[in-house]
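Support case: user asked for a sample of complex input and structure output to validate their parser. Sending the pair below.
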Amino acid sequence: MRSIDDFSRPLEYLTPLGEQVGEIIREWVEKEVIPYRRDFDEDYLEHRLILPPFRKLLGEYGIQRILFPEDLGGWGLGHSDYLSVAAFRMFEEIARADSGMAVAFGVVFWPLVLICCEPHVNRRLCEEFAPMFTGTREPVFSCMAMTEPQGGSDIENVEILKGSTIRTTAVQDGDEWVINGHKLWPTNTGGVADLMAVVCTTDPGSRDVNDIAIIFVPCHLPGVTQSSAYEKAGMAADKNGDIWFENVRVPLWYRACGPGDDARFYGEVVSLGNMGSIAFMTGVMLNVYEKVREFTSRNTYRGLPLKENDAVAGVLADFAATIEALRILGYQCARMCDRHDLYGPRWSPEVMAKARAHRYFAADRTLEAMGRVMNLMESFGADREWDVEKHWRDVKMVQLWLGGKQLSQMEVARWFYECETL
Amino acid sequence: MNDLGLFPYPRGRLQKADLDLAAELQSLVDKEIVEKRLELKEDYERLLKPAFVRLMVEMGLQKMFWPEDLGGEGHNEPGVAFTVMAALEQIACADVGLAFLAAHSFALQAALAGNGNLKREACERFAPLFCADGAPVIVSFLLPVFTEEESGATWRGKGLQVTARAAPAGWKLHGKCVRPTCSGADADLFGAWCAVEGEGQQAFILVPGDARGLARGPEFRKTGLAASRNADIDLAGVELAAAHCVFREEQEYRRLLSWYYLGLAACGVGALLASYRILKEWGDNRVIKATGNIFKENPLTGALMGEIAKEIAVDRLLAYDLAEMLAEPDTYGDAGCEGVFTAALIVVHHVLSSADYAIHRIMELMASAGYAKEWQLERYWRDVKTVQCYLGAYELAKHDFARWFYGARTL
């Protein structure tokens, strides 16, 4: 019988490590996540069901150490030019079970990219934070604190706004930064994160990108306060909340890359976030394929399995075709993020714009295709027992995070059409 | 400006009483639901059930069609379609699930007590249930669905979930794991579309929720429509008097469905009007690019907001056009004729699909606020999608369109 493994992937891009970890994750989701996921929505505050599987994956299997250099107890993926492709496989496997978990998992590594990956490894910060991730069998979570109340996703719009809207400040006091501000919505907040990277300004209102600072802040420090998790339409495994910083002090060398480079490599965070989002979507689509295949094989219309009706088969074919196309697109995006020598650096405006384009195109197609198959299942499409509706709720959030669609459209138009005032 | 009048509708076709009712409902649901839902969320016992009692019992909506001599209001002429539309869109504005439940009640009332098709015996038996002051009557339907059986009676390709056998005293009903259209856990009256054993015919039989042999499964979780606590049910030899069979003719099924589709279209319009209010607030107050640009003044977001307004305006007109068709049987044909039934199916699919599209776009404009429960938009998104799912597969509805417009015979 055909399965999700019969959908195409660009085999020439795959890496042994990614495939090996992918297989481990598939086994993990089958045993530890899929049997429990229908109750995740009600677990959004406590994570009583969500935390144990993470404990196994991140802590016991040790995947949380994957980016750090091998001599610091990591697996050295930060030095690989297959980082994104390997990540794509992992994200896809987790999202097949629960895209909220995939987001929470991905964000563990998101800020660490700034210090663990070539060509901007910050050895001192790796040495500082590696033990937090490698010296425990408990899961350790990171977060990337970007969005602010007054400007929403304007923070991500570095190319145009150049950090001028950032209100979270980092003021040098001797050999320390003193951080004050308020962030909204970061993944893995609501009390989950142990370590965060905070996007700050060292000079409020400045349009000099040297004043954009990304500073690491351990969450246990005095002055860091987190709200409880927001209630959302889905994605319960991804806790989001407010974070307030009140005279939080960290060493000066907790700054990720330094003046100019923080803003520059911030683009990498955006590119990888977009690439990861496509993986979340294809993972969801693969599981919906499995569910819809089961539904249309079991249920009948005019005396035949539903899938044997030509009109229904047309919708099913479109769904499969969408997976085929998006998966190839997603792997291509990942490869683009990996091969700086061929495509330019992943923090460049070009790769950022292309990754944005890939992501919002993928999100539009995913939601359209999922909406159609959900309707095909009639009342069962809205029934939690079939899992499709959960994926549908979750994947809408994947479309909307990172600033939503319009911001992506502007970035894409700016690059491809050389618009100057958008 | 009051958005009751902002988006166009055939104002001249509504009676003053309809407009008054709509205004009264708007005021009621704002107070009973909208003002409380940030605290009570989608709490059935504390928010939705009391609101349903206010609407159906205290406002008297469940008495609307029934003859006056049986305790009803006798508002059963075809023009009541406008009243139904105006009432349901206001209710759906506050809560689509409540409007969805009320749509079931109105469809049944129209099928049994509509002027010109009034079924006196059925009215005498069932009107008292609706007209006694006290509890609301939750109506649910057991309509044809996809089944796992490859044989068995079907209607237009879908399996009938309930079989009825003629018994000396009336009917005996059987059905396993039957999926109701709503409220399987709570319904007081199920309208069961049955296959009659040995006849090859069908019967629409009303099954009281407390009938012996009717067992309700556990409430299942679903995407939206919290007011409808649904559960699959079993009918194990439920015995009912002959008068519980309220109709058997094909045209009468279609009439019930045409009215039902009007109700579901009104649900979609109400959800759109509510979503408009949320977007309006967002567009008026949100600043983008931190330069003082008001959201609605940006050319890209403003254009998308304009497109959303267009969807709402067109959908509302379309749904009122369907009300017009039902209100004028002499012009368009009876609600149960194939042409009106097909038009009703087209309108409801179009409106719900358009509502789904528009609310998706609003969510995209609002980014994370679109899916945060605090902003209340996401509930309309979930509710509309759920109504759309319960309406049935669009791909197969297209066959109904093709049958009528192209004379297709084997679809």
